[in-house]
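TODO from last week: model Bacterial-like globin family protein.
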Amino acid sequence: MKDITTTQDIQLLVNTFYESVRESEIGFFFEEIAQVNWEKHLPKMYIFWQALLFADVKFNGNPMGAHFPINEKMAMEKHHFDTWLSLWKSTVDQLFSGEIAESAKSKAENIASLMAYKMEMDTKLRKL
């Protein structure tokens, strides 16, 4: 298997990943809670991962900020992010192998950990 080296590789990874997410136990967050517009969301994710893995574009979004309104509707808990991470890693492993593929998994681990922590704190603060 080849490593992640092109924008097309990132698009394949992101598209394949979100297909599995939509069919998984966390799919309802995207489909029902957030009601994601996939035509807008997927290109943002291509740029996000391209910025993280290749550092050749700048991502101007606020991923953390985008999740707080969803968390207000339904708490996103650690096990949800564990599922997200498991799906991401299995998708990377299914499609790619190499240094950048390993970096994609490592960066996703950091994202999942930080997101889970921030959403948990947000939920706790709203209950005070």
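Done. Residues 99-127 form the longest helix (29 residues).
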